[in-house]
Amino acid sequence: MKNISLNINKVSSVVSKETIDSYASLTKECMETLDKGTGKGNDFLGWLHLPSSITKEELAALKDCAKTLRDNCEVVVVAGIGGSYLGARAVIEALSNSFQWLKKEQDAPIMIYAGHNIGEDYLYELTNYLKDKKFGVINISKSGTTTETALAFRLLKKQCEDQRGKEMAKKVIVAVTDAKKGAARITANNEGYNTFVIPDNVGGRFSVLTPVGLLPIAVAGFDIDKLIEGAATMEKACGNDVPFAENPAAVYAATRNALYKDGKKIEILVNFNPKLHYFMEWWKQLYGESEGKENKGIFPAAVDFSTDLHSMGQWIQEGERTIYETVISIENPNYTLVVPSDEANLDGLNFLAGKRVDEVNKMAELGTQLAHVDGGVPNMRVSVPELNEFYLGQLIYFFEKACGISGYILGVNPFNQPGVEAYKKNMFALLNKPGYEEESKAIQARL
Ligand code: PA5
């Protein structure tokens, strides 16, 4: 079976092949540092060998729990934020029918999300929607104390118990959290919920291949064995023994650092398939949180084409030349749809009659690539044979491994996120959280 592949030919107007090749030894060093666990953040390297080390028993337990939720729920709410949310949503949205919501018959529970915002209207509408639904909840939080998630879970737990009774609630509320600590763990133990552990050595944004991502993905009806199989093939393809030029994670990490050094401060991840929208959100967190520190780091942005060619296209073509693009290109769609012929031809589209819609999309993709390269935007392309579990697994591992290498090339700790605490401290001070008395006084004085 073919693997996903990386093509960097269209960056050569800005960085030459020789420049990229000159990163080979540094890249190798970074990969060894990752492998030996001798670099910054080395207590968070559990993701590196997850695909090859996850056991059949672990997968079976996840599928078993997913079956209980599928058998007993019309709707499952996944409560989580950041790394405890985006990976599951990325995979589920990529694989789901775009109009799943509107279908009368559902072959899996409808998956919805909470705990990733504090919007009162959102939570009101959510709880209102759930009023007549047999619903379950997957409460995902590594720390078990994240405000957004805890607040949503407080509402959902009460509603589930009130609507479905304590006994059923016990069956359909599942916690994915730390093995021992945090409010989510304590509540789960007290209530007798089914639980899954987020390993200590896997940070949120690298956790999609743990129960954090795997449980919701299995509940939604997708094949987690295939997802892991895909990731495991990439673990091999991006291994330290693979020569630089053949190692997609090494080449991607090196190329983006070479571009950054040349003043390309923004990477735009591009898709031509709207199902990948949340995959891009997952990728933005992975790279933004891993590299944006010490006043350094490429800013990760994302666009859905051709939709955003009609909004952001102008900026990309002619704005400040500080950007480069990485396109995720799906080679073969899952369905066939042919453009019909029309007798009147008032829209002038008969020249497309008989062609597949994807042929039009592919020419939009190629035309855009050439236009943007001509406009001074270097372009990388990640080709994906098909959009399915296997290749999503490959994509996930490829981007994770490249992120670890890239962060080390940049010289930062790619596995911490000290910057995300600042807003929390202010929010707690403003809300007069017990224990924040001094901060409350100080912040009130600033207002
Ligand atoms: O990557 C990260 O560390 C964050 O995005 C966290 O995953 C996010 O803040 C949620 O944290 P928790 O799982 O502890 O609720």
Can you offer a commentary on this structure?
- The chain is 48% helix and 13% strand.
- The protein is globular and about 60 Å long.
- The chain folds into 2 domains: 5-41 and 228-413, Glucose-6-phosphate isomerase like protein, domain 1 (Rossmann fold), CATH 3.40.50; 50-226, Glucose-6-phosphate isomerase like protein, domain 1 (Rossmann fold), CATH 3.40.50.10490.
- 42% of the residues are buried.
- The strands form 2 sheets. The chain has a 5-stranded mixed beta sheet with strand order 1-10-9-7-8, sandwiched between helices. A 5-stranded parallel beta sheet has the order 3-2-4-5-6, sandwiched between helices.
- The protein has helices at residues 17-21, 24-36, 50-53, 56-72, 86-95, 120-130, 147-172, 183-191, 211-219, 224-237, 248-261, 277-291, 313-318, 357-374, 389-410, 421-430, 437-446, and strands spanning 5-7, 75-79, 110-114, 135-141, 173-177, 194-197, 266-271, 299-304, 323-332, 379-386.
- The protein has 447 residues and is an alpha/beta fold.
| Number of separate helices | 17
Estimated share of beta-strand residues: 5-15%
* Sheet with most strands: strand arrangement: 1-10-9-7-8
| Helix content estimate | 40-55%
| Sequence of secondary-structure elements | EHHHHEHEHEHEHEHHHEHEHEHEHHH
Write the layout of secondary structure elements.
Elements: E1 5-7, H1 17-21, H2 24-36, H3 50-53, H4 56-72, E2 75-79, H5 86-95, E3 110-114, H6 120-130, E4 135-141, H7 147-172, E5 173-177, H8 183-191, E6 194-197, H9 211-219, H10 224-237, H11 248-261, E7 266-271, H12 277-291, E8 299-304, H13 313-318, E9 323-332, H14 357-374, E10 379-386, H15 389-410, H16 421-430, H17 437-446
Parallel strand pairs: 2-3, 2-4, 4-5, 5-6, 7-8, 7-9, 9-10
Antiparallel strand pairs: 1-10
The protein binds 5-phosphoarabinonic acid (PA5).
